[in-house]
Amino acid sequence: MKWLLITSALLYVASIRRPIFVAALGCSLAYLASRGMGLGRLPLIGPQDTLAFFSGALGLMGLPFIYSRQTAGVRWFCWGCGALAGLFAALALPFPTINMPLPPILDTYWFELHVALAFFAYALFGIAALLGVAFLQGGGKPALDLQYRAALVGYSFFSLSMVAGGIWGYYAWGTYWLWTAKELWTSILWIFYSLYLHLRLKGQAWERGFAWLGIVGFLVTLFTYLGVSMLMRSSHSF
Amino acid sequence: MLKAIYFRLTSLNLGLWLMTGVMVTLALGSFSSASSEQGGLNDMPLLFWLQRAPLGYSWWLWLCVACIAVLFVNALICSIDALRRKGRSVAPHLMHAGFLLIVLAHLLSAYGGLKQQMQLPQGDSFSFPDGERAVVESITGQVGPMGMMSGYRAELRLSDGLHAVQPNQPFFHKGYGIYVKDVALSPVPVALFEVHKEPGALTAFIGALLFTVGNLMLLAQRKGR
Prior knowledge:
The complex is a heterodimer of chains A (238) and B (225). Chain A is 75% helix and 0% strand.
């Protein structure tokens, strides 16, 4: 079923119109569903599955934003969301699929909830970054308001993901917190968006800074997801 | 002078700088060998580790703890100050309360936590810190199609009967959690057990609940704005 992932990547990159984006999302979700049915669980183990899941999450979370009236004036926004989702679908392609059953320690709903919510949050942080670019390019206040909403909902998903991870860790490892690079960067990401949400209280003078912070946040997100797994040793590495 | 300190402590700018401080120290720490799996930081309660580790190894964590301590006071005073004024939403302050409880939970675990690892064959026994003995009655496991363990469990006999322990399903006894981490079935069944005490767990859970309730309230308030 890898052709579904290839098709979704191609359609995402070509999504200059919303129906193409929806078709790409359909292929992406169909691919994830086929993987999930084959494995009997959510496909969340290994770089191939997590990158494909991230791509699907970007499409799913991007959908309400590309249909929002507030982004109607930003002509490239639909393509931007598609290109981002397509990039991660394409990055997933070279990696082999891992078809083994879940190790006993990962075989719990808390783990699946923890990882799935984290990817929904990452996706919303990605969309917030695109909306930050839209604002800086003259998209006006509506783009910045949407960026705030995307980041706030993403922050909520991320907080819930941390709670689920803490509960899983307590039942699996005996502690809700471990001092590893992944946990440290997860905390950095959470504090970063806490800072971002507090910065809004500073008012209009900080609007450009706020938009930039939304963009930098996605870079922190990418380092937390990919950088830590590739550059540092951690129990969270895939 | 006290008023000036109070205003400084309620300042949003101070909170933003402290959050930056926590992020920078954690980022530096993530590249330190102390936070690696061999760094020993996860093998003992944090305060014991901080007392024993050389400063050249643990400086980033001291700085981080200092920033969090002041951030704790900043968030607490900021919430009290805001709630004294009428008409303010309680949602952000519930989130603050959740954060404060989670910091307290870490402090409780950093002081009173415990982790002990032991490898025991079937039939062997161990004692809890309160003196009660647990005998490893049985160790079983299933090997999956790829040769890896697809499931395993151990049964422990205590004075009140038989208790099963398996991955994600520890057995709790008077504040101690018993976890089975790994199992080998041959030449004789052996299991790797860990005994944990995490005194901050309940406080962290209550903090997480408060934070989540506040977060959901905030989302509901922001909806449609």
